[in-house]
Design a protein that fits this description.
Strand content: over 45%
Number of helices: 6
Radius of gyration: 30 Å
Number of strands: 64
Distance between the termini: 59 Å
Shape: globular
Helix content: under 10%
Length: 988
């Protein structure tokens, strides 16, 4: 079956080269037309009309009176049913939401046909056919509550979604922050390099959001986390224009708290922090040709100014961003059956930071971010049953960080005890330019096969490109870190020589190249009305991806990824008021471009350790003081990463020839019920399991009859590895070794005088959760949404990023660097926040004054303490879940005692959890008329009680194998201080 389906979809791909079926950014209306005796009325005509732009669609009711109007742009409509011999049935106002189905019953009445009877017996509040878990929220509701002006802030309103630490971003259902997808009007704008982050639309352009947290359709792929699906505003037949202003003055912020280690050294300096931001949006919309062509345009200038100090307080960075963003949209209703939509936006911004030491300007750092994004979409209706949608678009997300002192100043970070600060005339690690882009062509189609089957099908293709230009700063093109050590301790996997108490780590990094990845997919889905009350959704999705190295040759390729997804929904009692549903599905996640950009050639990346014999200084041409470490003896071998122009023939020696893709399996069982016309209740049980990590791994394995594999490779951690290898007789053979049984040589565990191989555990992540949701829709007086989530995220692999170590490059984390990282890493994962209570809503005190709130109470994250070294091999990296407790250093001659060391295992969470986080945000909005136009004035207070509890702590117990680290358990990240935002808007 798998092979047949794959070949079938391959035929579709060949027939439609470069085309991609698109994600659902619109909605539908369906229902039944009956008379007063509840008899179905065949051949009735049902017409829907957009009240803003006059767009109309008409369909005929089937033999049982049923109708469906698909692919309707999000908005407000008027719905009419007509039939000879009956008066019309009219619903004057019906809303169509993003990726949702609105269900209605239309009742025709007898009598004079010139009498219009307005009646709607029922507009169902639940989508009785859907089996996905999602939060829909429109811009009007967001205006009533205090919330950050980003898509990520909206996603955090949904149950099971948490803030990522330390990278920011968002975690869905225990996944890492690098596994999500963000779509704007069908265009994927997620970051192609790391998967963390997305392109930012000017927030005032948004019309509606849908946050998908699980169980979503096969048309959505390339994610094992969640989906943010958003649509933008459009113009209509009436001209509108207006403006809004949002300002958060520093004077209205509470004082920040400083944080210290146990020796009294400051780790976080908030005393010197200043931050103020102001943005203003100006928009205009309306008809270019009435009933045919419409526009929406927005321009948003901003000013963000910040000031921050280093931990010592003697260096101040003064930053300013005064750039502007913009966006626009055109809608052309060519006919009732054919339309075109174009949108574009830019999130370009530039941050310029001047750094002062003791009041003197030292350097200016400039960081350019963002890019231009656009898409063109065609929608066509062919009869009542076939709908076709085609999209082509481009997404761009860039980064360019540079400093004016990079040619003359070394970056030196002094991490010795009691110092912990940059010294010299630059803090810039590297000059770093990366251009990330996506070219996407997509098609979407659905066909109403009969009254029982709605077929949806498609293909998908994207070209993702990362153009990297990166080099360490300074005359030596290297950066330096100074640190303490102890003779006899372990550093770079060798013993620190006698007399060496300080060392310098020199890192040289030069990366350059263009790295492309092609992702393709196809899907087929049948929404089957099994009975009047039971709907089944049966779907299959096929994916493949291929990433190239710097020379344009294939680097990593995985294909024939088959994702079955099945769901069933039961309308209990057939009244559209309660629903029991379940779904099961598989979701695949492709490797982000960041791995190839760092390991696919075009790279020089070395790390060399030396004894530190002091510091040399010189004066630059600008009169600044530059520091250069004075090298003593080299400690250990040079650690090298990367390769030359490309991998070439080495690819088969370094990349598993039978890779399995990373994927997640998910099961959800849920129940939803309308308690009243406005109140609803929902409960869901969720199980997720992530498998098959693709990582760079260091492997040292004996191959019977063919020498050994002793090198860095790319493959599935803990699973069989198939690569080419040079055998003892110099022949080249393709060999397969089981890394789950033997990956690296360890100590002599059985006393036979020979080191024993250590097998690797298989990386996995598991997530179990129960969610409860109470919701009350806005009725002009108040609305509220309450949720409680109990969840447990555990395993030995977080996912695309590693929050414990601060590594955000998927496939390049520490998980494969040493076998003991995975073997010792089982337990609660960084995104495990066991309890989460969320509530948001608004209440109209008067017809002009509305108050809103947005609060969350979330339990803390596990503190996953780590030390240096482990009892099974000589690796002494600090990512291990062990700490040396005895025989760590020979007290006589300072010689490292190898396996004589005694280690204590550190289970995840051994030192408890970070504190519960309580966030309370409140708002007040006053609405009034201004010369016949609507004006609003508002105030938002974020973190009302000014809580500044730790969201992350330092987790490394020792400085090297021996010395206690004074930062252990000290605060590393904390809640931001209270801030007050003022806002005003006017619409004409």
């Amino acid at each position: 079956m798998k092979g047949i389906f794959a070949r079938l979809l391959l035929v579709v791909l060949v027939a439609l080269p470069g085309l991609v079926w698109g994600q659902n950014t619109d909605g539908s209306v369906s229902g039944v037309v009956v008379d007063r005796s509840n008899s179905p009325q065949a051949n009735a005509t049902v017409t829907i009309e957009n009240t803003a732009n006059g767009y109309r669609r008409s369909v005929g009711a089937s033999s049982d009176g049923r109708f469906r109007i698909a692919r309707l742009p999000v908005g407000d409509y008027r719905l009419t049913a007509t039939k000879d011999g009956f008066g019309d049935a009219v619903i004057e106002e019906i809303s169509v939401g993003i990726a949702s189905a609105t269900t209605v019953d239309l009742v025709l009445t007898g009598g004079a046909i010139d009498n219009i009877v307005v009646t709607a017996s029922m507009v169902t509040g639940l989508d009785m056919a859907s089996t996905e878990s999602a939060l829909n929220i429109d811009f009007a509701e967001l205006q009533r509550i205090p919330i950050g002006r980003t898509a990520g802030s909206v996603a955090l309103l949904a149950p099971g979604v948490t803030t990522g630490v330390p990278f920011g971003g968002i975690s869905f259902g225990g996944s890492s922050v690098g596994e999500n997808s963000v779509f704007i009007n069908g265009l994927n704008v997620s970051d192609v390099e790391t998967g963390v982050g997305y392109s930012d639309v000017p927030f005032s352009m948004f019309k509606e959001f849908q946050v998908k947290t699980g169980g979503y359709s096969v048309e959505f792929g390339r994610t094992t986390g969640g989906v943010i699906n958003a649509v933008l505003k459009s113009g209509g037949n009436e001209f509108h224009y207006g403006a809004d202003v949002y300002t958060t003055p520093d004077a209205f912020r509470a004082d920040g708290q400083d944080f210290f280690d146990r020796d009294g050294n400051r780790l976080i300096n908030r005393t010197d922090d200043d931050l103020s931001s102001t943005s203003a949006s100006f928009y205009a919309s309306g008809p270019i040709i009435r009933d045919k062509l419409f526009f929406y345009a927005l321009y948003e200038p901003r000013l963000v100014e910040s000031k921050s100090g280093n931990t010592a307080g003697n260096s101040i960075s003064d930053s300013k961003d005064d750039t502007a963003t913009w966006g626009g949209k055109l809608d052309w209703l060519i006919t009732d059956n054919h339309s075109l939509e174009f949108f574009g936006f830019s999130d370009d911004r530039a941050d310029v930071a001047d750094r002062y030491d003791s009041g003197s300007l030292i350097e200016t750092q400039t960081t350019d971010l963002g890019g231009t994004n656009w898409a063109l979409t065609y929608t066509g209706f062919f009869g009542d049953n076939l709908v076709l949608k085609v999209l082509y678009g481009e997404n761009e997300r860039n980064y360019d960080g540079r400093t004016n002192t990079s040619s003359e100043c070394n970056r030196v970070y002094d991490d010795r005890a009691g110092v912990d600060q940059h010294i010299g005339c630059t803090t810039q690690l590297r000059n770093d330019k990366r251009v990330n882009s996506r070219d996407a062509m997509r098609i979407d189609a659905e066909y109403q096969f009969n009254d029982s089957h709605l077929l949806r099908f498609g293909v998908d293709r994207e070209l993702r490109t990362t153009n990297m230009r990166r080099a360490s700063v300074g005359p030596m093109q290297a950066n330096f870190t100074l640190n303490n050590t102890t003779p006899g301790d372990s550093l770079n996997n060798v013993t620190v020589p006698a007399g060496v108490t300080e060392y310098v780590l020199e890192r040289r990094e030069i990366r350059g190249g263009i790295f492309e990845a092609r992702t393709s997919a196809a899907y087929l889905e049948d929404i089957w009305n099994v009975t009047e009350d039971v709907t089944a959704t049966l779907g299959l999705r096929w994916d493949q991806f291929e990433t190239d190295d710097a020379a344009g040759d294939s680097f990593i390729k995985v294909d024939d990824m088959i994702s079955p997804r099945f769901g069933v929904a039961w309308d209990i009692g057939g009244q559209g008021t309660s629903k029991l549903f379940a779904n099961v599905g598989r979701y695949y996640f492709p490797i982000a471009n960041g791995l190839a950009a760092r390991e696919g050639g075009g790279t020089i990346d070395t790390r060399t350790y030396y004894a530190l014999n002091g510091l040399d200084t010189n004066t630059t041409s600008n009169g600044l003081t530059n520091y250069t470490p004075i090298y003593g003896q080299q400690i250990g071998a040079v650690v090298e990463f990367g390769s030359g122009e490309g991998l070439g023939a080495e690819q088969r020696f370094k990349v598993d020839q039978d890779l399995d893709a990373s994927h997640q399996d998910e099961i959800i069982i849920g129940y939803e019920r309308m308690l009243t016309d406005t109140w609803s209740l929902g409960v869901r049980g969720i199980h997720r399991r992530f498998k098959n990590a693709i990582e760079d791994m260091y492997v040292n394995v004996d191959v019977p009859g063919c020498g050994s594999i002793d090198r860095w490779v790319f493959g599935n951690v803990g699973q069989p590895l198939t690569v080419d290898n040079e055998c003892d007789d110099s022949s080249i053979e393709t060999v397969t070794v089981d890394l789950g049984r033997a990956q690296q040589f360890g100590y002599d565990l059985d006393g036979d005088g020979n080191p024993d191989p250590i097998g690797s555990a298989t990386p996995t992540r598991r997530y179990n959760a129960v969610e409860f949701v109470f919701n009350r829709e806005w009725d002009g007086v108040y609305s509220t949404r309450l949720s409680y989530t109990w969840s447990h995220s555990y395993g030995n692999y977080e996912g695309g990023v590693n929050s414990d170590t601060g590594n955000d490059i998927p496939g390049w984390t520490e998980s494969g660097d040493d076998v003991m990282f995975i073997n010792s890493n089982w337990g609660d994962l960084p995104n495990d926040q066991r309890h989460s209570i969320k509530a948001f809503g608004a209440y109209a005190l008067t017809d002009k004054l509305t108050i809103g709130t947005n609060l969350s109470l979330t339990s803390g994250r596990p503190i996953n303490a780590r030390g240096h070294g482990n009892p099974y091999n000589s690796q002494t990296r600090k990512e291990m879940n062990y700490v040396c407790v005895a025989n760590c250093i020979d007290p006589n001659d300072g010689i490292w005692t190898s396996q004589d060391r005694e280690f204590e295992y550190l289970p995840k969470g051994k030192f408890g959890r970070t504190p519960w986080i309580f966030d309370v945000d409140v708002s007040a909005t006053y609405t009034t008329d201004f010369n016949g136009h609507t004006a609003q004035f508002g105030l938002d207070v974020f973190n009302l009680f000014n809580s500044q509890d730790a969201t992350r702590v330092y987790e490394i117990m020792t400085d090297g194998v021996v010395d206690p680290d004074p930062t252990f358990l000290a605060t590393r990240n904390a809640q931001l201080p209270r801030a007050i935002r003022l806002r005003a808007s006017i619409d004409f």
